[in-house]
Write a structure and sequence with these properties.
Structural class: alpha/beta
Strand content: 25-35%
Bound molecules: L-homoserine
Radius of gyration: 24 Å
Number of domains: 3
Distance between the termini: 51 Å
Largest sheet: 11 strands, mixed
CATH topology of the largest domain: Dihydrodipicolinate Reductase, domain 2
Shape: elongated
Order of helices and strands: EHEEHEHEHEHEHHHHEHEEEEHEHEEEHE
Number of strands: 17
Length: 436
């Protein structure tokens, strides 16, 4: 029994996928049952790293998703369109789908999974988050006995690379971004990575799986790393922290709501995520009764991402092999409930002003007696308790004061900041970052 695969896209991940499919030796024996039937590309003339019979290449991507012979469509073209339409058409034609497309899933998951349930097909997406790191399947299967409370990840390699270099070299964001672009570690248009949008897509997907409901992407609070400065990295270091772009999903303490957010965060040096550096990703999951588990590895690149793609293809092939044949009462193929997406409601997301967290803030103030007292009083008036206040030195003729709070309600902290900004002694609120 063989299973025919239609591949949409022959870029980095597509070529990595072909490489594995063409070299089954010493890998799982089920790989020998997979056949690359058609490969959709933008141009037939482009020079490529993989060799494929020319008659299986086509620029007609629609002919792949409608081909009656194809069992599994692998979508690795990325982007929103035509990826979304092709995935939906493949589903309508009864194909199982494997995708690496976090942007499409985070935005159109509702439409895609509703269509998949209707058609009785699987849509698997291990490669969409964390590249080669197995985290989607563990959330669906290996951890499914747990009540999951927290998912915290470093899920964007580009920003982790830039922050790591800023930490090690003391350099400024703009210089290191430019160098990372020259070295090919950051895209020419780095917006999706640098502004946290890529991480927001990924945490929306992880939160959906961990908490069993859909997530509206616009409700994910998203801040990137453009405003992280070498000065703050240096102060954080002195205080015992490193700065990381974290993607966080948690049950909010007092309600059934979830916190889902992406922002640069001061992470204690002793925390397991603090030592995840360079382009590496890691996802720390906490559940009851398992406690903490952390998944670490390469979050991008041809090999790691293709590893996740082909594993999904194999999972589907395995199900087909043992007989994806049982039928539900309404005549649809019965799906494995741990692999298919069964939830339909949207999770309620807590507003950021209700978040309870620690803050780091840096102020530039006039250097005269009583300024620290005024800051302390204002914070106190808004129930913001301070863990430490340090006058760190002088900068541009202003006193530089660094404050770390205890756990406080974000709304209260923001109100205090508004009042502080208006004080005649305050030249600038130079930075505000959350602390893990
Ligand atoms: N651009 C992403 C990153 C990789 O920098 O991690 C693909 O998700």
């Amino acid at each position: 029994m063989t299973f025919k695969v239609g591949l949409l896209g022959l870029g980095t991940v597509g070529a990595g996928t072909v490489e594995i499919l063409q070299n089954p030796a010493q890998r799982h024996s089920l790989l020998q049952d997979l056949v690359i039937h058609k490969v959709g590309v933008r141009s037939l003339d482009k020079l490529r790293n993989v060799t494929l019979p020319t008659d299986i290449l086509t620029t007609d991507l629609e002919s792949i998703v409608t081909d009656p012979e194809i069992d599994i469509v692998v979508e690795v073209i990325g982007g929103l369109e035509p990826a979304r339409s092709l995935i939906l058409k493949a589903i309508q034609h009864g194909k199982h789908v494997v995708t690496a497309n976090k942007a499409a899933i985070a935005r159109f998951g509702d439409e895609i999974f509703t269509a998949a349930a209707e058609a009785g097909v699987y849509v698997l997406l291990e490669a969409a988050v964390g590249g080669g790191i197995p985290v989607i399947e563990p959330l669906k299967q290996s951890l499914c006995a747990n009540r999951l409370n927290t998912v915290i990840g470093i899920v964007n390699g580009t920003t982790n690379y830039i922050l790591t270099r800023m930490q090690l070299e003391g350099g400024d964001f703009a210089d290191i971004l430019a160098d990372a672009q020259n070295l090919g570690y950051a895209e020419a248009d780095p917006t999706a990575d640098i502004d946290g949008l890529d991480a927001a897509d990924k945490i929306a997907i992880l939160a959906s799986l961990a908490f069993g409901g859909r997530i509206k992407l616009p409700e994910v609070h998203c801040e990137g790393i453009r405003h992280v400065s070498a000065v703050d990295i240096a102060y954080a270091e002195k205080l015992g922290f490193v700065i990381k772009l974290l993607a966080i999903a948690k049950r909010a303490s007092a309600t059934d709501e979830l916190e889902v957010r992406v922002h640069p965060t001061l992470v204690p040096k002793t925390h397991p995520l603090a030592s995840v550096n360079d382009v590496y990703n890691a996802i720390l999951i906490e559940g009851d009764p398992i406690g903490q588990v952390m998944f670490f590895g390469r979050g991008a690149g041809a090999g790691p991402t293709a590893s996740a793609v082909v594993s999904d293809v194999l999972n589907i092939a395995a199900l087909l092999k043992v007989g994806h044949g049982d039928i539900t009462a309404d005549g649809k193929p019965l799906l494995d409930p741990l692999l298919a997406c069964s939830h339909q409601h949207y999770c309620a997301i807590a507003p950021m002003e209700d978040l309870v967290t620690r803050f780091y803030a840096r102020f530039l103030t006039k250097d005269y007696p009583g300024v620290i007292g005024k800051l302390g009083t204002c914070f106190g008036d808004h129930e913001v308790s301070l863990e430490s206040v340090v006058q760190a030195g002088m900068r541009d003729d202003f006193a530089e004061i660094v404050v770390v709070t205890h756990d406080v309600r974000e709304g209260n902290f923001r109100k205090a900041l508004e009042e502080i900004r208006a004080m005649p002694a305050i030249a600038a609120v130079a930075s505000v970052l959350r602390v893990l």
